[in-house]
Amino acid sequence: MSELLYQLANKLGISTSFTYGGGTIKTSVASDELLRFFIESLGYGAKNDAEMTRSLERLEKKRWQRALEAVYVVTNAAPVMDIVLPQKEVESGVEVYFAPEGENDFHKLNVEMIDLETRQEGRVLYVKKQLRICEGLDFGYYDIKVKTAKSEYKTLLALAPQQCYQLDTKGKKKLYGFAVQLYSLKSRRNWGVGDFTDLENMIDLLADSGGDVIGLNPLSVLLHDYPEAASPYASISRLFLNPIYIDVEKVPFYEAADKDEQAVSEARGQEHIDYTAVYNAKIKALQNIYERVKENAHSDYAKEFHDFKKNDSGDLNRLAVFQALCHAKKIADKKEVKQIDELLHSSIGSEVERFAHKHAAEIDFFKFLQFEADRQLRLVEDKIKQRNLVIGLYRDLPVGVSKDSAEVWSDRYLYMQESGAGAPPDSCFPTGQKWGLGAFNPYELKERCYKPFIRILRANMRYAGALRVDHVMGLSRLYLIPDKGEEGTYLAYNVQDMFNILALESYLNKCIVVGECIGNVADGFKEMLTGRNIYSLGVLWNERGNDGFSFKAPNEYETLYFASVGTHDMPPLKAWWFGAEIGLMKELHMFTPEEATNAYKCREHERWRLLNAMDKESVWPEDKRRQGDYLFGEGYPEGLEEAVHGYMAKTNSIVFMLQPEDIFQSMQIQNLPGTDIDKYPNWRTKLPVDVEDMKDSEAYHRNIDVVKKWRAL
After folding, report:
1. What pLDDT, on the 0 to 100 scale, is given for residue 593?
2. CA–CA separation, 388 vs 90, rounded Å?
């Protein structure tokens, strides 16, 4: 690696090397080819020394070529901006004015100007000064004007608290709730996939049991024409909802004839979710309802739909046009496919406008789907308020978006070109992961004043009391892999800006933040989360004692934790006990027979450690004490779920999340990372018990009782 290449990569935030763990800590050094690829993706030349020298000079001059940055994201502890002006312009006098963003009611801002440095460019001497705000402003966004005798300059100021929103437990010491995959909820009234009414019923069940939070998988909208592309972490837009969660029978103007009884009955009877059957049945019914809504244009419901569309800032329309384009492509002939592909390359252009005009009715229907999904999720929030839950919904924000998505189509150059987000090898996934998700270009994101990121935060904090930020390390650095390649490296983001924005939106939306950081976590990162009042996940299988092997004792857990036994990427407790995922990975040739044998041996040690941990904490139920060591072939310990839930309920963590899969002894994994539907039915597992029957289940009451016992202490 040449020194120039090294310097250029580092200045752009591209990691030239990094450490990772796949059982042991290793160091990876990025190849010259990879570094050049990412340097050029960010718009800088790196083919030879001459190009790299010019790129370094360009970076050196960049800040001196504009008076103000596009945005300044600061906290009340350091409310400062900088400005670059010709010396003579400064001497003529500088005044600063502010107004709440978009209000145009400007007032003079009291600032202190401090000299930072000077630079000669040709015959002009430029001065960089720091502008320190000397008066108290409320947290929020402000338009800033800087006036001199000669010119006027503008920027956006985001003034954030130093920490995210503080949880008010309403007098409760420790909270608990359910971690639910909404699609997995099985009931005698839904159409074959969990819906928003099932969610309301789960809220009633939770409230009756004394719980206060219900965690959900991402609810983001997926591909309309390919319902089997079911991963909630690869959506076409993180701004909008998946219509499959609509309870069709709850929509105004629904009629019984809209329901395809045979399709629904067959979908309910399937072992796994048949997304195509369920989605198509719902869409057909919703199309009928939509026609009646148009016929009743003066109804309150139709007026509410009209207002929903009227309040669109443009994102809703772009999503609907994108969905209409994708649908047109699916049903088009070869000649039309080529034309539509051209329209799917960019959302800008007269041809896209002509298409939208021609398909206005279809586009309006897609907007209707979003309106009704939003309305029903709002009803869920109303239920939460009625039942007085402390937190309510705990939503999940994916780290990225599908590259074939409305988000990327709407603003292609906001995203990194020809590469996608993934993860290097770690102890959970030794081969690494190539997600191929669209990732923000950090420099372009700042030029857009972080508004795309802000819109996504707001969309996912809506109706939520807590937000899980998937792969929260991605706000600091994201592992990117070229589309045509397997080698990747990290790209840095402006970590202070990203976390300040997160804190500000958390404050404005009164939504606490939980950061998922399982895997390769940089030294000091978790401490930074704690300092920002961001909760972490405390997963039983990952929380280990000082020896690195034994399970961490409950009193060693952090307070700022959302604790749980596992996650959707891990086997439920009973499946873990029997090593179900090991056998599955062997069957799929993800493990060699030798690797599987070693994994089973390790699991036997882990089972012993788990039993030992339960013994130490005296959490076995009185009528189901431990009977032995339960070596492989000796069965499953009766009462283990209660013991484990008691163990986790005892932790210091302010919140404990139970998974229904553990309570009801599911043997199926919700998601097996590294596989798709051709190998494993990811995101298709139904719970073993109907929602209506949970409240009368002995297993449910025994597990809830033990959690209430230890959470109350």
Report:
1. 95
2. 57
Instruction: State residue 428's pLDDT score.
Output: 57
Taking Cα atoms as reference points, which of 181, 180, 685, 232 lies closest to residue 437?
Answer: 232
Q: What is the mean pLDDT of residues 561-585?
A: 96
Residue 343, classed as helix, strand or coil, is helix
Cross-strand bridge partners of residue 219: none
Distance set, CA 400 to CA 239, 421, 491 (Å): 12, 7, 14
pLDDT tier for residue 632 given thresholds of 50, 70 and 90:
low
pLDDT digits (tens, 9 = 90+) for 86-103: 999 999 999 999 999 999
Could you tell me which residues are beta bridge partners of residue 214?
178, 393
N-terminal to C-terminal alpha carbon distance within the chain: 59
Q: Look at the alpha carbons of 570, 572, 577, 582 in this order and tell me if their dihedral is positive or negative.
A: negative
- Tell me how many helices (H) and strands (E) the chain has: 24, 25
Put the strands of the sheet holding 107-108 in their side by side order.
71-75, 152-160, 140-148, 94-100, 107-108
Q: How would you classify the pairing of strands 124-133 and 111-121? A: antiparallel
Distance, in Å, from the CA atom of 708 to the CA atom of 100, rounded to the nearest integer, reads 46
29 strand-pairing partners = 17
* Continuous segment of H or E residues that includes residue 595: helix 593-617
CB atoms within 10 A of CB 189: 14
Res. 104: pLDDT tops 90: yes
Q: What would the two tokens of residue 153 be?
A: 């300059």
Query: Is it the case that residue 415 has pLDDT exceeding 60?
Result: yes
| Tokens (6 digits) for 126 | 């430029």
Task: Read off the pLDDT band of 24 (50, 70, 90).
Answer: low
Which two three-digit tokens encode residue 544? Answer: 């280990």
Q: Which residue is associated with the tokens 């990691």?
A: 15
Picking from 46-60, 369-383, 427-441, 685-699, which range would have the lowest pLDDT averaged per residue? 427-441
Q: Are 391 and 262 in contact (CB under 8 A)?
A: no
